[in-house]
């Protein structure tokens, strides 16, 4: 009985792993429609799931909100196609067991990013601390591009051949351009 249970358990685990392996790096899956770019978001969730509510900023009309769900897993990056434009994260939800938490960042310019068409746009690293209470969770969006560029290139090298990597957070960091000019010499 125990052996049969173990076999079924391993089979189910392998079945769940197969779709994730198939989704990892199929080059034909990474093609953008005209006017679209990729948002590359790095994340470290500390045993929780995060949901970001994004809004495309457009002065002419209000755009629908788009949820982006990040699950705690071994995956460190999320690559999502979005129409080109400026975006604001409105809120971040990080429930954990019976401790729901939602942080409103709609008025915080640090939670903005730009999507350029035909590029992979690094939007930052979402960090959720493991310590929390009923009323507080430490949630931050940081620029960790310099520390993560090697991991990004090894994970998404096949995508970066067709779509160059740019850093498009609210704060324009000159370091990627300086590094690129030094590497060109």
How confident overall, as mean pLDDT? 76
The coarse overall form would be globular
Q: Indicate the radius of gyration in whole angstroms.
A: 19 Å
How many angstroms does the end-to-end distance come to? 66 Å
Write up what this structure looks like.
- The chain is of the alpha+beta class and 185 residues long.
- Helix content is 26%, strand content 37%.
- The chain has three helices and ten strands, in the order H-E-E-E-E-E-E-E-E-E-H-E-H.
- It has helices at residues 2-24, 145-160, 175-184; strands at residues 36-44, 50-57, 65-70, 77-83, 85-93, 102-104, 112-115, 120-132, 137-142, 165-167.
- The strands form two sheets. Strands 1, 4, 8, 9 and 10 form a five-stranded mixed β-sheet that branches.
- It is globular, with a radius of gyration of 19 Å.
- Mean pLDDT is 76; it is low at 1-28.
Topology of this structure?
Layout: H1 2-24, E1 36-44, E2 50-57, E3 65-70, E4 77-83, E5 85-93, E6 102-104, E7 112-115, E8 120-132, E9 137-142, H2 145-160, E10 165-167, H3 175-184
